[in-house]
Amino acid sequence: MSVETGNWKIALPCTKAEAEYAQSTEEDDGRLPVLLAREPDPSQPEDWILEAYLEIKPTAEHIAALRLLAPSTTASPTIEHIAPADWVTISQTGLEPVSAGRFFVRTSHSHQAAPAGAVTFEIDAGRAFGTGHHETTAGCLLMLDQLARTGKRFANIADIGTGTGVLAFAAHRLWPRAKVIASDIDPVSIEVAAANAASNDIATGARAGAIEFAAAAGFDHWRLRRRAPFDLVLANILAGPLIDLAPVMARKLAPGASLILAGLLTVQAEAVVHAYRRQNVRLVNRADNGEWSILHLERGGRQAAMRRH
User: Which CATH number fits domain 5-85: 3.30.420, 3.30.70, 3.30.360, 1.20.120?
Assistant: First the structure.
């Protein structure tokens, strides 16, 4: 086998925040198809390493893409030719299942039994974000569970930036008669989410009790425009896009509708809340999970839709 092909690894030191951002961002342009972050020394919790795995010898373009994700480091990346392996599979083999409220999320490589009565999903991220292991996804699952336990009911739901689809699946299980639409700017993520829906026996389509998928930037798709206004919108993306989307997001919410926002660091939460407050969408609850915040907001109007029924 030529050393120009096979499996290659580029590694670069980074901070914990950079590692979390790299694992959560949906802005990957495809140059680094398999990206892992690890903490080599638990006694140094802020020092992490980003590792990118490639099937060809890394080019200057690959190295530049990795450096963009770790701007704080001045170190040179290490480049290593390694034995062939399925790094997507390996990256998920050691992941422990996640329990968040009534939800239990595991990969296909986990053999741990689900707790009695748990709503279980089997999610392999592959080329999309959202196995439930990141604090943002787990926090959204927990907040959805809390909404259901307080008696909230929703009939028209949108999941913007769906990734693997897990949040849309959770909303579908909690409100099984609702219409759900899940969108993502990345068409690959829509392929992954649709495959995950099939493997988890989740009905798909435009009817009530099913999930419809659409590749779209924000709400820029006729299916989303046709479905609006929504009484529940989920958006686990990043703080910048969430702020930019605030005006259009508010217009897509019915009076009294709920909005769950995530993908933002705790230090970014106030800026996001302020952007939505200007659109008459106000904070109801905030949960901090590690360095990340999950926000539950409601749109005003018509006495908040009689406090949502």
Answer: 3.30.70
